[in-house]
Amino acid sequence: MKREKSSLKPLTLAQRRATGAKPRHLRPTVKRDSITPPDVGQIGDFHGADPQPQRGGAGGTFGSLDTNLEIDEQNIDNVAPPTTDNGIVPNLKWSFSLSHTRLLKGGWVREQVITDLPPSVDIAAAELSLGPNAYRELHWHRVAEWGYILNGTGRVSAIDENGRSYISDVRGPENGADPDLYYFPPGVPHSIQALGTGLEILIIFTDGNFDRSGTTFMLSDWLAHTPLEIVAQNLGLNVSELGGIPQKDPYIIQATVPPPPLGQGDSSAPVSPEGTVPNPFVFRISEQEKTVAKGGGGWVKIQDSTNFKVSKEVASALVFIEPNGLRELHWHTKDEWLYILHGHGRATAFSGSSTARTFDFQVGDTGVFPVSYGHYMKNLSPTEPLILLEVFKSDKFVDFSATQWLALTPPQVVADLLNISVAAVQTFKKDKQLIVA
Fold it and tell me: What is the pTM of this model?
């Protein structure tokens, strides 16, 4: 991640351990604007007091045992929503801090699946941490796997359906540079190994119900449930040599022999007679030019099949919103799954039929805006950027800008609809702004 200011904290999960930075989900210290008449939807400000379910003349106060104040402070718009919220919109937010963590020899993993966030039908996610030299065992999936390197260094290897091989080292954000991505199409067998001090990854799967049976297939688990004489015949070995096959899926394995160091993965990799894969499974975001938002409020980097050829089922955008900036009012043709890398944000989801709900986001939160839901993302901080990932089950990134639509509609039509002057309509930007300062 490029740091626009030297004061920014590292944008990695490792900040919980190595940097001494504050851990996730402390009460935010964002300075909020006071709500003064007229109420135009500002975020609630309780001036240092505990948040209460009240806004203007409506609502009341909590009793002494009614609430969890730390959760309330992180979700002001649940406690005192803007008056523009209306109707029933399901929960569209999930924090990885609420996920169950599976502790393993060599690392840990925690997931967000459809049972955690039911509206996320297209996408499930996991945070995976591998200790030095540990690796995710050989496996493949029924669905596509996309990974964003949060911290550390590692090595991925795979083959395609023609037996062409692939091996590449991957890096998290180092020396101010953006991290790497990887993508494995459905069915492609692969492994991931940590190098150096370890590896942490945000992993995306193109099925919200990722934990269903028949989605992930572990090689050792398969062999353990195949008659041993068949395995021996298939591999050209004696049965006596196969007595150590794990009888229970290890998920993560701690290597007994360290792998070749970073940059030397090819030194011990077998050479396929079929050659190497034609389109790399790894994408270097650090080598990608950022698109500066015409609205002046930040930048984006988009990765999809137009520049990451192999990524046919996942499109993504790394979005940098400057202090007080706004990811403009927009919508998508696919569900948007999001992940907050840095900062604090606020978004309202409009689901049509006069229904809307506002959510507050911070580091480690995930969320989903279902297909065609109108929404925005506001950076709540006057000093810190808001950095997030937008991810889609799609071959291409697509969004529609509300301002651009209005600007390219006959002005009198818009003026009549919004009850504003034609002169005001004519000031609307005809170019997609993406982010507004």
Answer: 0.91
